[in-house]
Write a structure and sequence with these properties.
globular, 422 residues, 21% helix, ten-stranded antiparallel β-sheet, 8 helices, six-stranded antiparallel β-sheet, alpha+beta
Length: 422
């Protein structure tokens, strides 16, 4: 036998011996079920899924969380640790975002209670942990404005492209609140009038935009400007007109915050009686239940049923003027009680000789009916203190230069409400 052949035989013998040893070695026993359950040795990440939903009107928060992917017991357990919110008072439409695994359940969920306020619930080893998150905003300053075609809301909507559509309406309402002592925006505006507003624009990290404080505004009606400027006297911040007199006055210009006049002062055919009668007042069309405000401080001299007026309130004011509010659905004051300006005194209704919900409003001076638009044309409010007038004049010059700039961004930061040194 040659040397090479001998080596091959020896190697073969060694291989057979090793195989025999391997075959003969005992193997650790494993239950068949555990082998089947283990399956292939692959690394599988948790299958997390994000569910987004909103709370529906009238439903409990636990139901909404269950629909968003949480187990009912998980939802109940999480809400037991809630301290930053009352689960019974979360509004319909509130967004819910839940991170859920079909294998292990929910790991966290959030409730966005406001545009800048989020409540986050995270599951720990033992329980749930609640954390309130206030989202930071950045603020700059923009000019918006437009020409009135029919309403202030429409003019702002057309000239406030820096804001989402819904926020433009909110901006118009905010401006109406500033001007409500000087202008009845449902009646005094005419086509061709114009409005410009210098306003803060606030932006959230997620890109949401909202209007901040109104810094200054100019409403030009029939060529005559009504100007206002936000200004601080010490720690008090309020609005003044272009001459430095407070925008607040003894009377509001309208008894409803959100108003839409449906008939005019003067002669009209009565909708029920069918006769041509002098319509001594104004009708403000509004939904039943809309709050009615006292136009000024005064004393209630009548509160009850008054013939065709239905449920009625009459208030005598310090200057002897009487304001009357008719066709009410509810009366919130009693005869003889005192009321403050802007206090809710009743609710819009359709009592008495009325065909639809609306507020009938009258002004009487020395017992004689007066056109409310004329009778409520206010004298300017209180002037600035003398020590603040120079600072006001300097600030007005700077701010109104920005107000007259082209529409859009004018400053990448908030505008101050006073100049230091005064």
């Amino acid at each position: 036998m040659t040397t090479s052949r001998a080596l091959l035989v020896a190697a073969g013998c060694l291989g057979i011996g090793a195989a025999a040893v391997a075959i003969g070695r005992p193997v650790k026993e494993r239950p068949a079920a555990s082998v089947l359950e283990a399956g292939p040795r692959l690394s599988v990440a948790p299958r997390w899924r994000t569910h987004v939903d909103t709370i529906r009107k009238g439903e409990p928060l636990t139901v909404a969380l269950t629909r968003a992917g949480l187990d009912p017991e998980e939802a109940a357990e999480a809400l037991r640790v809630a301290s930053a919110l009352d689960p019974r008072r979360v509004r319909a439409g509130t967004p819910i975002t839940a991170k859920v695994s079909p294998d292990s359940g929910a790991s966290e969920f959030t409730l966005q209670l406001a545009i800048d306020r989020v409540i986050r619930f995270t599951r720990s080893a033992q329980t749930w942990v609640e954390r309130e998150e206030l989202l930071p905003w950045t603020t700059d300053t923009v000019v918006v404005g437009g020409e009135v075609q029919s309403t202030l809301t429409g003019a702002i909507a057309a000239g406030a492209q820096d804001f989402p559509e819904r926020q433009r309406t909110e901006l118009a309402y905010a401006l109406a609140d500033v001007l409500e002592y000087r202008v009845d925006l449902s009646r005094d505006l005419q086509k061709g009038d114009s409005v410009r507003v210098l306003v803060e624009r606030q932006r959230a990290p997620n890109g949401l935009v909202r209007p901040g404080a109104i810094i200054a505004a100019r409403l030009t009606m029939s060529g005559k400007p009504v100007e206002t400027l936000r200004f601080a006297q010490g720690t008090r911040v309020s609005y003044f007109d272009g001459e430095g007199k407070s925008m607040r006055a003894a009377f509001l210009r309208a008894p409803l915050e959100f108003r839409r006049i449906s008939s005019v002062f003067g002669m009209r055919r009565h909708p029920i009686l069918g006769t041509l009668r002098r319509h001594s007042g104004m009708d403000y069309a509004a939904s039943r239940g809309t709050p009615v405000r006292a136009l000024g401080n005064g004393r209630v001299i009548f509160a009850g049923w008054k013939g065709g007026y239905g449920k009625t309130i009459e208030i005598r004011h310090a200057n002897g003027m009487v304001t009357r509010y008719g066709h009410l659905d509810a009366i919130n004051v009693k005869s003889g009680s005192t009321v403050n300006i802007a206090q809710t005194i009743g609710k819009v209704g359709s009592t008495g000789l009325s065909t639809a919900p609306h507020l009938h409003f009258e002004v009487l001076v020395k017992g004689v009916h007066r056109d409310p638009r004329v009778a409520l044309r206010n004298v300017a409010g209180e002037p600035l203190e003398a020590k603040h007038r120079s600072a006001f004049a300097a600030l007005k010059s700077r701010i109104f230069a920005q107000l007259d700039a082209p529409l859009g961004l004018v400053a990448d930061r908030p505008v101050p409400v006073r100049i230091g040194g005064d």
